[in-house]
Design a protein that fits this description.
heterotetramer, A: about 475 residues, alpha/beta, 12 strands, B: about 450 residues, Aspartate Aminotransferase, domain 2, Aspartate Aminotransferase, domain 1, 2 domains, 14 helices, 15 strands
Chain lengths: ~475, ~450, ~450, ~475
């Protein structure tokens, strides 16, 4: 069951792809490029035939688990089903085979989709404008904070601090840092909500922004959001919305209406584009009117007849991507929004929240529920309810693998001890949830009665638990050509 | 109800679930939302379309674009029209790859992890460096991350940047640098190559890194001899931004002393896609491994001793290090990296070399023929890979319009991306361009007076 | 060497293998071939093309055709332009399905076997009969197989065939019948329906089967009341050739007494593909199960009691029965059957009914509008499903040429497939045709005087 | 690990695909179709959502084994690797979205491909013309025999017998029967070759044809082919070539040159189109000049400018397919032939034969080799060499499953006791063969030393051995709606 490396399949002289012969007169290589600029030794790429390529990657794919294989209740990741028609749309040659530097007259269809998508996202967010350029959520955060910074600077204000609750995603403080801003972490209330006193104590004339996700990373709606916005705005700071949890609020409430000034969405979460095993994503950023001048270039504009890319924006933060962002991810999200329409999107959030509450209530007798409130699109448990001294939350997660599901997120958010964060999403049926609930109950029983089943898990996977410590201590991060004796 | 095919729960399911929860309506679940911030109306979006309708809409929008399957394309400048074997999309399109999340649970993610580990190995082989990450967003942001990393590693805040670097990349550098207080010193080019004298003058002990592109934006192969020594002798890093296809024949960054290699991986089997998703790659010398941004896959063993792969060195990353992280990157371009690995596996040692050779030869054939036309001349005498700048007898925009009429996508009008005359065109010739297509281009150019 | 990417063995592999075999050259392995019959020259075929070149060639050839994505299509007549959800090709395109062979080793073929078993179940549900096979070549040959089966089952050699059956199907029947000495008695139509009086006259105790199509070639819904009794009372079988989409709303063959239902499964999610591969389906009453041609999948258990599927009732088949087999069919259309199953799973009970309803309504809207145009009239008053015959003021061929100019693929000029006037056109309207497209068709027709 | 049936996933009210609403005025159903013609009860199709459809068929696919998963040495089936570029060509909308009854002016590209393909196949077969209409190999046999019959009849001869060796594929005698001809089976020589005495005794004025495959089903070239052709032709009969084994002879020898009058090819074997788990295939038939008038209609013709479908052929056998055959299979074969060219095709056969001989020689010490001659593209063994009383050939095949390969063909050809027929094809590498050989050796050892490992196989598959007897005795061949109590 050990899978060969692609390098181990190699044999000199084999080829896996077929290229045409040169149809132009060829010259000596060194007549074109000085010998000093040429490499001495060719890169050691494998030499395998087409059938080897196909079997290798087909076999690797079968050692991987995606949403198409089953339930994926990974909290904070919104692993909903990715509709296939989106893939069809993205594959159309008129989209996939266009060069980013073509004359805009020849790409009007592409620009139209982008223009409309940014407007749709602005409407969903309650914002006045939107850029599609960021390539992922964290990239959206970076773009958003840079816009906020530029805004303050344009007003002659030097604001260098970003307030981040201790329940936040790690990207929030990291983004502040790479934007040259200082993170001020404030303690949350036990239920993950913002501690208003701590916030009031933290804000000041040096505060650039408060970064918040709502629902919080505990899956709970921040009920004091109006008050929070008031505190932040009165201090002259702006409010940043981390859209990681936006799947709970589509058509129900809007960050802009809550008082947020900047929003990023993750198209690869809320808008149903596939995650690709870690990207490509897309992290569009929506802003309120006053921040529009600072959006990255190019901005897509429409004069009623023609779409164009406008680079002439004196106050822009500049470019944040080589071209215009992850276009083919946008195509998928656009297709999704056009498929769902306003009613469909609202139903998405209703069903996502219903599913999460259903799971939460069903599991509450077996797993510690730290906050007895309705959750939004995901719920967080604090480990097993019954005393099971040998079993860690990690063990529970690994045992879930043996039952054929992807486990929930574990040990996040950091403020909940032994956190197990479950996000079912709206694309799962009651039957799937019932089966999952039954498994989770069974594992809770096993943890007490047969703990070795849980601590020794997984047993049904192609590898068992892996030695992560050694991997980090003595990193083997690439293949190396074996030394010939 | 729109989107019902994506929403499995029926009305009776919903009622049963509400009853189990102990509420009478979904609205109750949203009771924490203050009424004042609730949206009291439907979103102002177009009404739902059926699958048939939405696909027809997208087909119509797609048909409003001219694509490179319809017209031969001589545009490059950071996005390249290469041949992609059919196996690539067939395999990267396996849903187990594209519908997975990041590999936080390695036991059920061995396929993705191994593919990424092999990708890292390929990038190391191509660049001649020790450690690759599992991808960054694109070439431009990879270069910016390299700048951040170099400044972090050296504790310095000046970077010297060659004007031979893609102007879009330099704009991204500027965006990233500004808020971190980095100073960018730009060194101009002479005959399309970075000005060596100016470079020497610019590099000093305050400089964290020298950033060069090779082949550079003008397609020119830079003379890298002695460059690394120059910057190393002042304690700085050499960052090379490279085209991965060119590395099949050109000296790899590791061999000319670069500490960091970055670049745009799009040529490795990714479609043009109007600019994205592309693939930022980065490889570094071992000593910078623990400063590298992005995810890294490592090899290890399971508790039975079987080989396996995991995400490793996560102490560098934002979700552990939070505000002390060197980079905020989280989701990257995993599927693009796997796609590149499939492409490189299919092409293999001989294939990649052949692609590079065909690009080089065809570009030189085209350049030679165009240079022989009256009114046209090559802007530079320096060696080049598969792109070159032509000075044109009429504004480049006019020439492109004429080419478009004749069914050819011309080169990049340089005046649209940098200051300078309007009669400079950057042309790219990949292995996909046939002699007949090149000759057709030449014939149209010849006819323009 | 051409095709080397498909041929993994290198020259050194070949030498090593020759040595192991104990011969000095590959030629020696061919020594049994008499020199007189060896081909002493290369095959006279075009030289090899690279993948890039061959794909460009195919794209060019494809571009020489007008396809139904470019122009709305009102052609039916045995091949139908239906909407196919994107999931269908994504799932049928899983290589585990399409690169497998027939399921002779059930333990590693459970996926294909279960999919085919579910397909059989769907066909039984649609036709109202007991047993379905796992596919035949297409509708026409399925009908011919039904004829053979009926003659075999009854020991008779006459079959009565409605003139409402597709003329191409009747040509295939004739081809199959001739060599077996079957006599085909054709019963004409009146107002587009099979002539009941002539039918009564034709059916007697020498007749093995009555073959009817419903809806028939002209789109007309036949009056099946009492037909089964008519043929059963003489000891013959009723064979119904049906459109599977229509069966979502029309009475199934099982309900009007048919013994065998066959038909063309192409409407169930298969592309037009210029006529093939399509999908012949066949379902029969249980008593004919052991006479049915083609493969059948059965449910069983493994030695641990787990549910599983196998090819069953193989005693019927050619590889066991040899010259005593009822049919020679071996490879059939397995992947097409799986595709149809995926389509039906996606559409489901509501979806298939909706497709049928939309076809019916849109066809009647179109027919009504055309019938109201001066010079045009519907040929028949009988009820129809989604096809209808229009009598045109000018030859149908001329009208089609005009439609083509306006970007519309018109109906079938009936004179090209049967004797009769040149001004009869068979039009089909599926759920894919929009009101706007129908109105555009009507507008062009109206403008033709 | 039990996989649910699609019906078991159903829940009333779910939908898996999304259709537009009617945009025309609707009428009452019974106003359009008489109530008597409408069904009383809707067909019991399942009601499942899109994600259920995707997961169901993704899971089923993962319970299936194809060439992309590994070695498939199934004798007589030519399970070579199916190139992906062929799939791309077949998917082009300009091919996949054309209606068979479009005006021929609008399908010139499709007709050109078909015209050229029939010429290429005729050249490869050494024939004068070719029809692409048959949808599979057996359908090609039927077409071929009908042509032969029509030919004899056109000459006023009544010939009703078809001679078939006892080593033949079952389709040969079955085809004769469905063409209303009588099969005369002749005993083969022990090595599977035609017994000339038996042939001479069988031929006569009533002989329509001899059906033969060469190489024979034992993978051996029929050395007396010239003499056989003479005997058959002198009797006024024709010689039919079953192309199932054509992968051995491309560019090396041609049926037409051996004296065959009619040939069918299996595009889904020799010409690399995928088998689809049992089709769609394609079985083009090539004929000598004198048989051209009898080809099925339509015939594709080219006048130097335009391609057209000609139905006006008075001596034709008629139509054998609803339209023109399996067009998209033809596209794949055409792509393959253009990719390989004349040299590539010859290399295919050379490598196929080399691979088969390599396996044969390596396994000869462990499995009984009935004929010690060079084989062609496949080799046949007669069970295990060493005495292993408990182990049947079926057990060996099942044990191979545990090692992750598809087994060879077993118990065919019928004339070899305990036959194990191995066809490696040219797309397998020496390494793959070496690994397979090692497994086959190991199984031979197990059969003697640990027979229970072999007789109890397979153990690693999703089901173990299935009860085929009960399946046939009490057939359960469809799902039935459970009776509601």
């Amino acid at each position: 069951n050990r899978k060969a490396l692609v390098f181990e399949l190699s044999k000199p002289g084999r080829i896996g792809a077929d290229l045409p012969e040169a149809d132009v007169p060829e010259q000596e290589l060194t007549a074109l490029v000085p010998a000093a600029a040429l490499r001495d030794k060719e890169p050691q790429l494998p030499e395998i035939s087409e059938v080897d390529v196909v079997r290798h990657y087909t076999a690797l794919s079968r050692r991987n688990y995606g949403v198409d294989n089953g339930f994926y209740p990974l909290g904070s990741c919104t692993m909903k089903y990715n509709p296939k028609v989106n893939e069809e749309a993205a594959k159309l040659p008129g989209f996939s085979n266009i060069h980013p530097l073509q004359d805009s007259k020849t790409v009007q269809g592409a620009l139209a989709v982008m223009y409309e998508l940014q407007n749709y996202l602005a409407e969903i967010a309650g914002m006045d404008a939107c850029t599609l350029q960021p390539a992922a959520g964290a990239h959206g955060e970076l773009t958003g904070l840079k816009i906020i910074r530029a805004y303050h600077e344009s007003r002659g204000e030097k604001r260098t601090k970003v307030i981040v609750p201790d329940s936040a995603h790690g990207t929030n403080p990291a983004t502040a840092t790479v934007c040259g801003l200082e993170t001020v972490e404030i303690k949350s209330n036990p239920d993950g909500s913002v501690n208003l006193d701590a916030l009031r104590a933290a804000v000041g004339p040096d505060t650039a922004a408060l970064m918040l996700t709502n629902p919080s990373t505990l899956g709970l709606f921040e009920t004091q959001i109006i008050e929070i916005a008031k505190i932040v705005h009165e201090a002259g700071a702006l409010l940043y919305y981390d859209g990681a949890n936006a799947n709970a609020i589509l058509g129900i409430t809007r960050p802009g209406d809550m008082g947020f000034d900047v929003v990023h969405f993750n198209l690869h979460k809320t808008f149903s584009t596939p995650h690709g095993g870690g990207g490509p994503g897309s992290g569009p950023v929506g802003v309120k009117e006053k921040l529009i001048p600072f959006l990255p270039v190019p901005v897509i504009e429409f004069d009623g007849k023609r779409y164009r890319l406008n680079y002439d924006r004196p106050q822009t933060i500049g470019k944040v991507h080589g071209f215009y962002g992850n276009f083919s991810v946008m195509l998928r999200a656009y297709t999704y929004i056009r498929t769902m329409g306003p009613d469909g999107l609202r139903q998405v959030s209703e069903d996502a929240v219903l599913n999460a509450n259903y799971v939460m209530r069903a599991l509450a007798p077996y797993y510690k529920l730290p906050f007895d409130r309705h959750c939004m699109h995901e719920c967080v448990f604090a480990g097993l309810k019954e005393h099971a001294p040998e079993v860690k939350t990690l063990d529970v997660a690994k045992r879930i693998l043996d039952y054929g599901y992807h486990p929930p997120t574990i040990y996040f958010p950091l403020i909940v001890h032994d956190a197990l964060m479950i996000e079912p999403t709206e694309t799962e049926s009651k039957e799937t949830l019932d089966e999952f609930i039954a498994v989770m109950k069974e594992i809770a029983r096993e943890a007490v009665e047969q703990p070795e089943l849980v601590t020794g898990a997984p047993r049904t996977t192609v590898v068992r638990r892996l030695d992560e410590a050694t991997a980090a201590r003595k990193p083997v991060v690439r293949w190396k050509e074996p030394l010939t004796p | 109800m729109a989107g019902r095919h994506y929403l499995p729960n029926t009305e009776s399911d919903r009622q049963a679930m509400l009853a189990a929860i102990g509420v009478s309506s979904v609205d109750e679940l949203f009771q924490d939302i203050p009424p004042a911030v609730r949206l009291g109306r439907p979103l102002n979006l177009p009404p739902a379309l059926s699958e048939l309708e939405v696909l027809q809409l997208m087909q119509q929008r797609a048909a409003e674009n001219v694509h490179v399957g319809q017209m031969p394309c001589f545009l490059g400048a950071g996005a390249y029209d290469h041949f992609i074997p059919a196996v690539v999309s067939h395999l990267a399109g396996r849903s187990e790859f594209y519908t997975a999340y990041t590999q936080y649970q390695p036991e059920i993610s061995q396929g993705g992890l191994q593919a990424l580990w092999e990708y890292q190995s390929y990038i190391c082989e191509l660049t001649g460096l020790d450690v690759s990450n599992a991808s960054l967003y694109d070439g431009a942001t990879a270069l910016a991350e390299a700048m951040n990393m170099a400044c972090g590693a050296t504790g310095r805040s000046k970077v010297v940047v060659s004007a031979g670097i893609h102007p879009f990349y330099r704009r991204v550098l500027a965006t990233y640098a500004r808020d971190l207080g980095f100073e960018i010193i730009t060194v101009s080019t002479v005959d399309g190559q970075t000005d060596r004298a100016a470079l020497k003058a610019a590099v000093n002990t305050e400089v964290a890194a020298l950033l060069m592109q090779n082949p550079n934006f003008y397609g020119v192969v830079e003379d890298m001899e002695g460059i690394a020594d120059l910057v190393h002798s002042h304690g700085g890093l050499l960052v090379a931004c490279v085209n991965p296809i060119s590395l099949a024949i050109l000296k790899p960054p590791g061999a000319y002393g670069a500490d960091v290699a970055v670049g745009e991986g799009q040529p490795l089997g990714l479609g043009l896609n109007f600019g994205g998703p592309y693939l930022g790659f980065m490889a570094v010398r071992e000593k910078y491994m623990r400063r590298m941004p992005g995810r890294i896959v490592g090899q290890t063993t399971d508790l039975e001793g079987k080989r396996g792969f995991v995400l490793t060195l996560q102490a560098r990353e934002q979700h552990i290090r939070r505000e002390k992280a060197y980079s905020n990157i989280c989701s990257n371009e995993g599927l693009c990296a796997i796609t590149a690995a499939i492409y490189l596996s299919a092409l293999g040692k001989q294939g990649l070399a052949k692609v590079a050779r065909l690009c080089l030869q065809k570009a030189h054939y085209a350049a030679g023929r165009i240079a022989s036309l009256p009114g046209y001349r090559l802007a530079y005498t320096a060696p080049f890979f598969h792109e070159f700048v032509v000075e044109t007898p009429l504004p480049a925009a006019e020439i492109n319009a004429r080419l478009q009429e004749k069914g050819i996508i011309g080169g990049l009008d340089l005046a649209t991306v940098e200051d300078g005359p309007d009669s400079r065109m950057l042309l790219c010739v990949t292995e996909k361009r046939t002699k007949a297509e090149i000759d057709a281009l030449v014939a149209v150019l010849e006819g323009i007076k």
